């Protein structure tokens, strides 16, 4: 079992930055691909970013490409999401997920955190 706990969310003005962290426990994440998803009010959960087990490859949703960066520190059992140039459309609950493949669909991930709220004001 893997437990995931997100942190780093909050309220930020448009154009600002936040860094989300996802700390895993119960198992080392070095054998797992990791992803970030988000869900805005009234909308379905959507893919944001993913990273392979070693961090050698990443993938991003078009809506965040060039602004968000996913990274990982396997020694710390932690995954990060650096978010720059935030805009109100980025407002959502952000979820960390772990799975076998670095996929863009949520069903490929077997473990999920509880989420952290990110609110971007205009």
How does this structure look, described?
This protein has 122 residues and is an all-beta fold. It is 0% helix and 52% strand. The protein is built from no helices and 11 strands. The protein has strands spanning 3-7, 10-13, 18-25, 33-39, 46-51, 58-60, 68-73, 78-83, 92-99, 109-112, 116-121. Strands 2, 4, 5, 6, 9, 10 and 11 form a 7-stranded mixed β-sheet that branches. A 4-stranded antiparallel β-sheet has the order 1-3-8-7, with no helix packed on it. β7 (68-73) and β8 (78-83) form a beta hairpin. The radius of gyration is 13 Å and the shape is globular.
Largest sheet: 7 strands, mixed
Mean pLDDT over all positions: 97
Please estimate the helix content.
under 10%
Strand segment tally: 11
The stretches of 5 or more residues where confidence is low (pLDDT under 50) are none
Which series of helices and strands comes N to C?
EEEEEEEEEEE
- List the total number of helices: 0
Terminal CA distance: 40 Å
Task: Jot down its keywords.
122 residues, mainly beta, 7-stranded mixed beta sheet, 4-stranded antiparallel beta sheet, 11 strands, 52% strand, globular
Write the layout of secondary structure elements.
Blueprint lengths: L2 E5 L2 E4 L4 E8 L7 E7 L6 E6 L6 E3 L7 E6 L4 E6 L8 E8 L9 E4 L3 E6 L1
Parallel strand pairs: 2-11
Antiparallel strand pairs: 1-3, 3-8, 4-5, 4-9, 5-6, 7-8, 9-10, 9-11
In brief:
The protein contains no helices and eleven strands. It has 122 residues and is an all-beta fold.
């Amino acid at each position: 079992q893997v437990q995931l706990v997100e942190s780093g969310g909050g309220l930020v003005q448009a154009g600002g930055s936040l860094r989300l962290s996802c700390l895993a426990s119960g198992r080392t994440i070095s054998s797992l691909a990791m992803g970030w998803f988000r869900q805005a009010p009234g909308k379905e959960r959507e893919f944001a970013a993913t990273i392979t087990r070693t961090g050698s490859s990443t993938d991003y949703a078009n809506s965040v490409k060039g602004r968000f960066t996913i990274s990982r520190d396997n020694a710390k059992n932690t995954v990060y999401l650096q978010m720059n140039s935030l805009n109100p459309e980025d407002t959502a609950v952000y979820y960390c997920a772990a799975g076998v493949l670095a996929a863009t669909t949520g069903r490929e991930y077997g473990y999920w955190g509880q989420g952290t709220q990110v609110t971007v004001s205009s």
